[in-house]
Design a protein that fits this description.
The structure is a single chain. With 211 residues, this protein is mainly β. Among the domains are: 35 residues; 99 residues. Helices cover 8% and strands 33% of the residues. β7 and β8 form a beta hairpin. The longest helix has 17 residues. Keywords: Signal.
Length: 211
Amino acid sequence: MKKSIIAMAILGLGSQMQAQIGIGTTTPSQKLEVVGSTAVQSSVFLDPVDYANNASGFTILGTDPQSSVVNGKILAVENLYTPLIVQPYSITNIYRDDLTDLNLNISTDKFFITVANFQAIPSNGNNGIYTDTSVSPINKGHFVFNIFESGGTWHISISYPTLNTQNTTDRYTYNFDVILYSRRFYKNLGTITYDLGGSNNGSAPSAPSGI
């Protein structure tokens, strides 16, 4: 009988270990849910690997050194993942070489963006950007990128303003990567403008404010 009671107690303990634990609540929704203040006198460990390659993103835990409730510093951070997103784009069948306005539908409230790894690929049978060699001097020109905000989302335009394709039937494919920087971790310091007065060198009048 005594052995049976011990076995039942062990089984009961095992079922409780698999259950959710609530402190200050009788209906916990997580493995451990605390309703109220918590004091930790030793260490708290977070495994950031769980946040990698997670479609919903990741979480970084920080402390406010000015707070009277939470005070302290992080001694070491390991395996921390950079809060960046790289999204490849392939825009096909563009009329000639002018992408005048592409709405990326990326919120300007949540992200800053930059563009990298640009490729301009003419469709099969087309000559690409055309230069009239009979005109002197020959102007080969260059691609111009413009990333701008409109209607709460980021837009991009890409063109070759000094030249054009040889035929109006020519089409282009533009490949590029958009790098998204979360506004939770990055901020816009604004544009710094100063006049070099026709010189080829100079020095910024001051460091950017906010750094």
